[in-house]
Amino acid sequence: MTPAIVMEIGRQAILTVLTVAAPILLTALAVGLIVSIFQAATQINEATLQFVPKFTAMFVILLLIGPWILQYLIDFIQRLLGSIPQLIG
C-alpha cells in the first residue's frame, strides 16, 4: 500500500464525515442564528432558549435524513472493505 492510497482513503473518509455531518450542523447553525436574532430583538437572555429549538430541529432532521445517512455510510464501508484485497495484493 502506497502513501498515495492511504491519502486517498483518508480524503474519502473526511469527505464522508463532512457530507454526513453537514445537514445536521447546518440545521443547528441556522436555528441558532434565528434564535439569537430573536433573543437580541426581544432582549431575552435565557440559555435554555438556545438548546431546546436546536435539539428539536436536529432531531427532526436526523429523523428525515437518517436513512440517507445510514445508506451513505454503508456504501462507504462496503467500498472500503471491498477494496482491501486490492490494497493488500
Describe what you observe in this structure.
With 89 residues, this protein is an all-alpha fold. It has 3 helices and no strands. Helix 1 runs antiparallel to helix 2. The N and C termini lie close together (9 Å). The relative contact order is 0.12. The model has no long low-confidence stretch (mean pLDDT 93).
What's this entry about, in short?
By secondary structure, this protein is an all-alpha fold. The chain is 90% helix and 0% strand.
What secondary-structure arrangement, pairings included, does this model have?
Elements: H1 3-42, H2 48-82, H3 84-88
Helix pairs in contact: 1-2
The dominant shape is elongated
Major sheet: size, sense and barrel closure?
none
The number of helices is 3
Tally the beta strands. 0
The averaged pLDDT comes out at 93
Head-to-tail CA distance between termini: 9 Å
Measured by DSSP, the beta-strand proportion falls in under 5%
**Proportion of residues in helical segments:** over 70%
Question: Which ranges are low-confidence, i.e. pLDDT below 50, for 5 or more consecutive residues?
Answer: none
Radius of gyration: 19 Å
Along the chain, the helix and strand elements come as: HHH
Q: What would you call the structural class? A: mainly alpha
List the defining traits of the structure above.
single chain, 89 residues, mainly alpha, 3 helices
